[in-house]
Amino acid sequence: MLRHELQPGKLVIGAALILAGVLYAGDAGGAWETPWFVAIPLVTGGLCLAGAVAFLTSRIRRRRTAGRTTADGAGPDMAT
């Protein structure tokens, strides 16, 4: 199986959108009452959190890859 890069920002926003969908599906099914304005802070909060997570993980990855190239002795300008 091919491996892919983990993208935690997409995981966070996916979870927030699934939660919003489940809340409104439960409301439509009659299980509980969900006010119409619940989706706005849930989705915008999920987007902000996903952006922060994506920013932090990109900074961590950039720092790790920069440390590897200098530790190996073969930096980007040393490659032929």
TrEMBL record:
<keyword id="KW-1133">Transmembrane helix</keyword>
<keyword id="KW-0812">Transmembrane</keyword>
<keyword id="KW-0472">Membrane</keyword>
<protein>
    <recommendedName>
        <fullName>Integral membrane protein</fullName>
    </recommendedName>
</protein>
<feature type="transmembrane region" description="Helical">
    <location>
        <begin position="35"/>
        <end position="56"/>
    </location>
</feature>
